[in-house]
Write a structure and sequence with these properties.
The chain is built from 9 helices and 8 strands. By secondary structure, it is of the alpha/beta class. It has one domain: Divalent-metal-dependent TIM barrel enzymes (TIM Barrel, Alpha-Beta Barrel), CATH 3.20.20.150. Strands 1-2-3-4-5-6-7-8 form an 8-stranded parallel β-barrel, surrounded by 4 helices. Helix 3 packs parallel to helix 4. The radius of gyration is 17 Å and the shape is globular.
């Protein structure tokens, strides 16, 4: 991979899945990582205090930092891809925002990922976007109170997910900024999703690098570890760094074999992070 100095982190919702969820932070630490992220780690948007404490304890006891956490996104295994734009589920989404930000306050989380959600037959795109605008403004205000950003990402493999390119995401961010005054919404630059969706990665980075708050990687095709596909991941990471991005790079791929075997591409000395998600435009902290 091309040379860059961006720190790597590991997504424990897609890696180390050989283990129960609460054992994965310790496994990540044993593999040399000191920063992790998770998708929504609970079965519902309103986990009990005991469940939250167990999750926080697993991260703390492992000696790693939680740098990223998703808000509740519905039933992901069944095909849901977020609640942000889902009319009638505002209370559920906002409850998860409150839980996530309470975890963020305890653990120093600096980035929360808000999956936009699929287009529905029961509401018009305009109605859904209005719900999304209000929900994102709520999430941004809650995250600001714990010195964090809200991340919005393009997604591939879901036919009715409307945000496919960096331009799509930035358009939503700008719309919410204009309406609410929020200043802590950021683009989650997932190189895999952007590539699979046919976005021009070089152009997207050159145009939108000041908006990037976090980066995730997987090779394409296949969504496995770097080196298993044809995506020039190192080149794009170098371009991001040259453009001013200084946050983390999360490994968010399906290991082609086991997690440990799939980490052979990354030398142990490169598995240490710094401060995680970028909080302000332009790559500054």
């Amino acid at each position: 991979m091309a040379d860059h100095s961006l720190p790597y982190e590991v997504n424990c919702s897609i890696l180390f899945t050989e283990l129960p969820l609460l054992e994965r932070p310790a496994a990540a630490h044993a593999a040399g990582f000191d920063a992790v992220e998770f998708w929504w780690p609970f079965a519902t948007a309103t986990p009990s205090g005991t469940e939250v404490d167990a999750f926080v304890g697993a991260v703390t006891d492992a000696g790693v930092r939680l740098v990223g956490l998703n808000f509740a996104a519905g039933d992901m295994p069944a095909g849901d891809r977020g609640l942000v734009s889902w009319p009638g589920r505002e209370t559920e989404f906002r409850a998860s925002v409150d839980v996530a930000c309470s975890i963020g306050e305890r653990l120093g989380v600096r980035g929360f990922n808000a999956l936009y959600g699929l287009r529905l037959d029961t509401a018009s795109p305009e109605q859904q976007d209005a719900v999304a605008d209000a929900n994102l403004a709520y999430a941004a205000a809650a995250a600001e109170r714990v010195d964090a950003v809200v991340l919005l990402e393009p997604v591939s493999g879901a036919a009715r997910y409307p945000l496919l390119t960096a331009e799509d995401v930035v358009a939503v961010i700008e719309r919410v900024e204009q309406q609410s005054g929020a200043r802590n919404l950021r683009l989650l630059c997932d190189l895999y999703h952007l590539a699979v969706n046919g976005d021009d990665l070089e152009r997207a980075i050159a145009t939108h690098a000041p908006r990037v708050g976090h980066v995730q990687i997987a090779d394409a095709p296949g969504r496995h570890e770097p080196g298993t596909g044809q995506l020039a991941i190192g080149r794009y990471l170098s371009q991001l760094e040259a453009a001013g991005y200084s946050g983390g790079v999360s490994l968010e791929y399906n290991p082609s074999t086991t997690t440990e075997a799939g980490l052979c591409w990354l030398p142990p000395e490169r598995r240490h992070a710094r401060d995680g998600v970028v909080r302000t435009p332009g790559g500054s902290r």
